Amino acid sequence: MLPRIGKIDGSTFDRIIYPRLGKPDRAVLIGPRHGVDAAVIELPGGGVMVTAEDPTFGMPVLMPHFGWAIVHICASDVAVLGVKPRYLSICLMLPPESEESVLEGIWKQVHEECEKLEISIVGGHTGVYPGIAYPLNGGCSVFGFGRREQLTPACNARVGDRLIMTKGPAIQAAGMLALQAEKALKLKLGGEIVEKAKKLFFEMTVVKDALIAAPSAHAMHDTTEGGLLNGVYEMAAASGTGVALFENRIITPPEVSSVCEYFKIDPLISIGEGTLLISAAPEKTAQLLSDLGGEGIRAWEIGEITDGEKIFFRKDGSREQLKPVTVDPFWGAYFSALEE
Fold this sequence. Notes:
single chain; alpha+beta; Phosphoribosyl-aminoimidazole Synthetase, Chain A, domain 2; 2 domains; seven-stranded mixed beta sheet; six-stranded mixed beta sheet; 11 helices; globular
């Protein structure tokens, strides 16, 4: 059975998608697989092209910043492979009766964010179609070019590497819920902490994080659906390794904790676009943390890549097997806030 909303699960991917990938091509170095954010295609002369695609649907809370979200969410998937995003193509669909000002507002943001990230818009499709309630990014493709040796896919974590997390868990969940349920949250939590949570929306990007970390990283992965725990599991599974993850090292910003507690969702398994996981050699960890901190990006060492099992060590000392997160609690919380 398909999920009610969100990405299909791993078993469905394995049964339906993975066995049917068209014509095999030796130039495809990294194709569709669990836990890997983008594809890599080998080019003549030793170069590589990195490409990723993502949809973005126009939830009401997204609409004032829809163009910003499209660019950063899609560009992040290329950046996590250690390559600077360079080109963008987008399919933007609008519902009937949309005003021209809506298109203009979205497109202005797409243009401005691409300018900031030095990305050229090279094509796409824009039109008005029935059957959708809000503007929809039907698919944004981002391309970057580099050398094979600079790649940092999630499948490249190595035994002995230290695991680093930027920003904290559930950045996206807390930011979007704070915007959607601002009035109710302010009554319960107060204005100051809700304003901090709202600002997390603009941390839903790992482009800067990834490009800073790339020279020191073996592997990188951003935590989307299923949150931090799912992201750690995906990185270890993709790399064929184990992992030791320590709950007492995971720093959750107070505004994230407060919003998640209000909605009774676990921040460790809630959608976390904007949180970057980095696997790096022990001797590079201190400098990497310093480099990130020097650019205003909070980061912490939270675990280690091992040759054993995938273990989550809880604060009370108990051990749990890390498993894929099948249901992200963010969606239920978001739609309950939307109904209110």
